[in-house]
Amino acid sequence: WNDAGVEGAHRFLRRVWSHSRWAFQYTPGALEAQSRYGNDWKPLESVCRNAWRDINLIFRQANFDYERMQYNTVISAAMKLLNVLEEFRHTFPGSVEDAGEAGKVATEGVRRLLQVLYPACPHITWILWRDLGFAAVHGDLLDAAWPEVDEAALQQDEIELMLQVNGKLRGSIKVAAGASKSVIEATALANADCLKFSEGKRPKKVIIVPGRLVNVVV
Using the 8-state DSSP alphabet, how is residue 40 labeled? Predict the structure, then answer.
């Protein structure tokens, strides 16, 4: 422990407070929609969909770390979650009436952030939970049900795979989420970085690790 560590934690909590208080102006309408539709709503705009996916990915990781009692990475997940929310804030509409799906994403993101932080920072999170109106919808923070990960939101239309040539990282490729191995292989071999680093040599084999990488061996 040192003063620098305390100052860093203080700066983070000030950011949490600032962002959450900013979200307050959008919360009532978004909470009303949340209470009606529960977890059934799906953000439609791409920016909302991407932010909601990131929120659920980070929240799932926080759940996993809590189960392992690995609290330092839980706090790391909370910081990542706040980063996503702050970045999303820059694309947020200017009024409650225009909020729509963005309001739901912002509200549910803050809800998850407060619940993830609550065991470590009970005082500030309890106050924000009450003032933002979450207590009226979900009950007291201590007793509120833990949100579920929206598995459907984690699905992607397109995925990015790391591209290796002879085991060395040389770039990346993007393919449809359900692309076949033949399509992935063809995309990798046609990639400019692959052509450059393979120096025109015919590939001996192409190793595909699903969802992660493609390694072209020449």
Answer: G
- DSSP letter at 210 equals T
Q: pTM (2 decimals)?
A: 0.67
- Mind listing the pLDDT tens digit of every residue in the chain (218 residues)? 567 778 888 889 999 988 877 666 555 444 444 444 344 444 446 778 888 889 999 999 999 999 888 888 899 999 999 999 888 877 765 444 445 677 778 888 899 999 999 999 999 999 999 888 888 888 999 999 998 888 887 777 777 899 999 999 999 998 887 788 889 899 999 999 999 998 888 889 999 998 889 999 99
Cα angle value 108/45/157 (rounded, 5°): 100
- Residue whose C-alpha is closest to residue 160's, from 191, 137, 130: 191
How far is it, in rounded angstroms, from Cα 122 to Cα 124? 6
Looking only at the bridges linking them, the beta strands covering 205-209 and 213-217 are antiparallel
Spatial distance between the Cα atoms of 108 and 212, rounded to a whole number of angstroms: 29
User: Which residues are registered as beta bridge partners of 175?
Assistant: 159
